[in-house]
Amino acid sequence: MMRILCLCICLLVIPVQAAGLDFKMITLQHRFPQDILPAVQQLAGPEGTVTAIDQHLVVRATPERMAAIDELVERLDTARRNLRITVSHDSQSSHDQREIGVSGRIQRGEFGVEVPRNGEQGRDGINLDLNRQQNTMVRSGEQFLTVLDGERAFIRVGQSVPFTQQWVLLTSRYINIQQTTQFHDITTGFAVRPRYIGSQVELEVTPRIAQLNQQGYIDFEELTTTVRVAPGEWMDIGGMMQGRDQVSREILSQAQSMDGKNNRLRIKVD
Asked: How much is the pTM?
């Protein structure tokens, strides 16, 4: 029986040795394993494995990849800090203004009224000049949010939006988990999660709807977009998300109006 057990153990060890994989358990000091697990898994390669247990990463990888993983974990496993997100809302609205000018002469019997003329005469010697003028108004404002590195902040776009049948259909299309929260009026926007990866900031942008003045919300995780920017660099998340998916377009359309109003939503992380 002992010989059979030893033989089984050897059969389990041989494939790992044959593949030339090293084994290591890495204890994290500052970050949760789930925060850096995706990045480490990419470095492990198809032949390696990375799993999370409590505050540890259990890694199997080739010696070369293990060295790269050690270096990556050392850079990522740092104390989390508060980050400041600056949100810039720029809106531009245009409307037409018409001016009417009258010139010519009106004659009725013995009485007549003379008006200085410009251009050709129309009926009764009256000339109407229509001047069309377009006025543009630009407004801008900034909002400041503080969030812990790796946590999410909510950037509102639509302050009060009825939870119409269209939102019900979008939610059922993109959300797999059954929602028990009953929504009536909602706020719309984007949940933004910034975290430092080396010298860059990785930004996860997720469409979100939330109960008006309540705690319940829905994040459309399937529609999350991840980008990397330099600290202090402005990023136009409105322009980026406009062409991504229907939910983001609906959220951004809440800030539009029928009078030609255009909005730009930008953020930067310091």
From this structure: 0.62
